[in-house]
Amino acid sequence: MAPAIDPVIGRYVRFEIDGVAHRVYFEEAGPEGGGGIPLVCLHTAGADSRQFRHLLADPAVTERYR
Q1: Fewer CB within 10 A of the end CB, N or C, for the chain?
Q2: Rounded to an integer, what distance in angstroms lies between the CA atom of residue 20 and that of residue 24?
């Protein structure tokens, strides 16, 4: 069996709020071409995005949501 890579992409977005620069990291997966309904998953303090990795790799979720 050939190895498979999950179709998850990590990115940073930079923006300003009241003159203060911010940089936020997010991970994204979903339909080809970037479509799909945005689905936001926020972790609690002391956790990280790994707790949602199974959702980002699940075709039943990513065929409709990004």
Answers
A1: N
A2: 13
Q: pLDDT tens digits for 37-64?
A: 989 999 999 998 889 988 988 989 988 9
**Residues 62, 7 contacting (CB under 8 angstroms):** yes
The beta-strand segments (E) located in 1-66 are 9-17, 20-28
Query: What is the chain's percent helix, strand, coil content, to nearest 5?
Result: 25, 30, 45
Longest dimension (CA), the chain: 52
**Is residue 18 within 8 Å of residue 3, measured between CB atoms?**
no
For position 5, what pLDDT does the model report? 82
Element (H, E) at 53: helix 53-56
**What is the DSSP code (8-state) at residue 65?**
B
Q: Is 0.85 topped by the overall pTM?
A: no
